[in-house]
Amino acid sequence: MTTPEAPTLIVGLGNPGPRYEGNRHNVGFLVADELAARIGGKFKAHKAGSDVVEGRLGARRVVLAKPRSFMNLSGGPVAGTSKFYKVAPESLIVVHDELDLPYGTVRLKRGGGENGHNGLRSITKSLGTKEYLRVRFGVDRPPGRMDPADYVLKDFSGSERKDLGYFVDLCADAVEALAADGLEPAQNRFH
């Protein structure tokens, strides 16, 4: 008897609802939507607290998830979805916005600090570990003295939106490479 292949869980972070759709903080949802389109799936509500799509990216079995909670409470749905699908932290990829990277820059890493990102802080607390994979999508620092919390809840600017589709596609490519090839080969390709 063969056991089914454990999936890779790919979580895009964001805030639910139309009010937040175009916000910088929702770039994780945009990447998750792009990946869902690539596997030909539609998100459906799951009892663990996320909207999910199951499928394959290349040869890899994946579960895509978008927590239905607000960003700062992402940990519960992520931990619940991980537990339901029996996904260990090392097979969890979280896609999120990153203030400390220039707009459109994509960086991959395992573990580390949360850099003030409350969604990551919530996930770390709920999982009891920081040792999960992260795909960081640069949204740049806020201009002047703007509060970073206000900045990430604003929509992308007109000039940023011109290239947003390209950068979301690039980030989705990086997620696919990370799931298929592992951290170091994906970093070598996308850094």
From TrEMBL:
<feature type="binding site">
    <location>
        <position position="118"/>
    </location>
    <ligand>
        <name>tRNA</name>
    </ligand>
</feature>
<dbReference type="Pfam" id="PF01195">
    <property type="entry name" value="Pept_tRNA_hydro"/>
</dbReference>
<dbReference type="GO" id="GO:0004045">
    <property type="term" value="F:peptidyl-tRNA hydrolase activity"/>
</dbReference>
<comment type="function">
    <text>Hydrolyzes ribosome-free peptidyl-tRNAs (with 1 or more amino acids incorporated), which drop off the ribosome during protein synthesis, or as a result of ribosome stalling.</text>
</comment>
<keyword id="KW-0963">Cytoplasm</keyword>
<dbReference type="GO" id="GO:0006515">
    <property type="term" value="P:protein quality control for misfolded or incompletely synthesized proteins"/>
</dbReference>
<comment type="function">
    <text>Catalyzes the release of premature peptidyl moieties from peptidyl-tRNA molecules trapped in stalled 50S ribosomal subunits, and thus maintains levels of free tRNAs and 50S ribosomes.</text>
</comment>
<keyword id="KW-0378">Hydrolase</keyword>
<dbReference type="InterPro" id="IPR018171">
    <property type="entry name" value="Pept_tRNA_hydro_CS"/>
</dbReference>
<dbReference type="GO" id="GO:0005737">
    <property type="term" value="C:cytoplasm"/>
</dbReference>
<comment type="subunit">
    <text>Monomer.</text>
</comment>
<keyword id="KW-0694">RNA-binding</keyword>
<keyword id="KW-0820">tRNA-binding</keyword>
<feature type="site" description="Discriminates between blocked and unblocked aminoacyl-tRNA">
    <location>
        <position position="15"/>
    </location>
</feature>
<comment type="similarity">
    <text>Belongs to the PTH family.</text>
</comment>
<feature type="binding site">
    <location>
        <position position="70"/>
    </location>
    <ligand>
        <name>tRNA</name>
    </ligand>
</feature>
<feature type="active site" description="Proton acceptor">
    <location>
        <position position="25"/>
    </location>
</feature>
<dbReference type="GO" id="GO:0072344">
    <property type="term" value="P:rescue of stalled ribosome"/>
</dbReference>
<feature type="site" description="Stabilizes the basic form of H active site to accept a proton">
    <location>
        <position position="97"/>
    </location>
</feature>
<dbReference type="GO" id="GO:0000049">
    <property type="term" value="F:tRNA binding"/>
</dbReference>
<protein>
    <recommendedName>
        <fullName>Peptidyl-tRNA hydrolase</fullName>
        <ecNumber>3.1.1.29</ecNumber>
    </recommendedName>
</protein>
<feature type="binding site">
    <location>
        <position position="20"/>
    </location>
    <ligand>
        <name>tRNA</name>
    </ligand>
</feature>
<dbReference type="InterPro" id="IPR036416">
    <property type="entry name" value="Pept_tRNA_hydro_sf"/>
</dbReference>
<feature type="binding site">
    <location>
        <position position="72"/>
    </location>
    <ligand>
        <name>tRNA</name>
    </ligand>
</feature>
<dbReference type="InterPro" id="IPR001328">
    <property type="entry name" value="Pept_tRNA_hydro"/>
</dbReference>
